[in-house]
Amino acid sequence: MSVFIVAEAGVNHNGSIDIAKKMIDEAAKMGVDAIKFQTFITEKIASVYAKQAKYQSENTRIKETQFEMLKKLELSQSEFKELKIYCDNKEIVFLSTAADNDSVDFLVDIGVKAIKLGSGEVTNLKLIEYVSKKGIPIILSTGMSNLGEVEKALNVIDSNGNCDITLLHATTNYPTDYKEANIRAMVTLKDAFKRNVGYSDHTIGVEAAIIATTLGATIIEKHFTLDSKMEGPDHRASLNVEEFKNYIKSIRNTEILIGNGIKRPTVSEISIMNNVRRSIVARRDLKTGDIITENDIEYKRPGTGIYPEFFSIILGRKIKKDIKKDQVIVWDDI
């Protein structure tokens, strides 16, 4: 199964539906599986006193509260409905992170294929319970959390009969330092909870995606922007169009390199097998009626005759016709 690649638009539309549509256009052309936004009502998720996270203030360089920042980035439900239709027309999956109950209801109503819950919601068991009762697939990022917290969230989901969940390992810092990526924690999640896992990549570059693909990620999401120099909290840690194309290519090439795990000769190997394998050949001229001994044979290319692995079978056999020195011995000769 191919990795499901999500271009995380997030709030990189800067509150503009026109920019959001341009992002959808580019994402569809890039060939990602889905583009994901963030659906929220600012008044329901942030106090007017909530300060920006460190990475937000560093990236925006604007002195304002988290509430003020989010309010500028908020899109209306009617705008999101328009974006969902726009994605459908572009044949790209529309996804969004739901941050409150009203947003959950809205996204379910417009027919999203899954609800994404961000890392900040792992301990928000009431929201998790609300989503799990909808009977819709859940994608849960697990940044900032430990196994115990993830287990509590899963217990809530399981208790409501929702078994379709993918856990995303993440490090909630934008960009994520390589030393804090710890991608093997994704495998820990899979081993501990026996669920599908993926990776929410906030690092710079493509290496993390290659590693996550190799370790069995079913979903990889990465922040995407039209221009990393735009104002906003996430642009600096996002890939532009050309960078994202390379990102996709790296993931798909990694999948090809991993292969299907079946150990057998490839088509190209079969075509050269006779040239590089060895056969049993005559060490000296052999006459009809000679009995083959170890001193009569050696092993040389090409591999068009009897393979060396069968040497013990031909020892003591009688030669049916004359064989010249260095001639490949075939089964019809003995």
Give descriptors for this structure.
AFP_Neu5c_C_sf, 2 domains, eight-stranded parallel β-sheet, EC 2.5.1.101, N-acylneuraminate-9-phosphate synthase activity, alpha/beta, 334 residues, Type Iii Antifreeze Protein Isoform Hplc 12
**What distance lies between the first and last C-alpha atoms, to the nearest angstrom?**
50 Å
Number of domains: 2
Q: In terms of per-residue confidence, which ranges show pLDDT below 50 for 5 or more consecutive residues?
A: none
SS content category: alpha/beta
Q: What can be said about the biggest beta sheet?
A: 8 strands, parallel
Q: Can you identify the CATH superfamily of the largest domain?
A: Aldolase class I
Compute the average pLDDT.
95
Give the C-level CATH assignment of the largest domain: Alpha Beta
Note the overall shape: elongated
Estimate what percentage of residues fall within beta strands: 15-25%
The appropriate CATH architecture of the largest domain is: Alpha-Beta Barrel
Element-by-element helix/strand order? EHEHHHHEHEHEHEHHEHEHHEEH
Our count of helices gives 14
Helix content: 25-40%
Count of strand segments: 10
Q: Predict the CATH topology of the largest domain.
A: TIM Barrel
Strand order of the largest sheet: 3-2-1-8-7-6-5-4
Radius of gyration: 30 Å
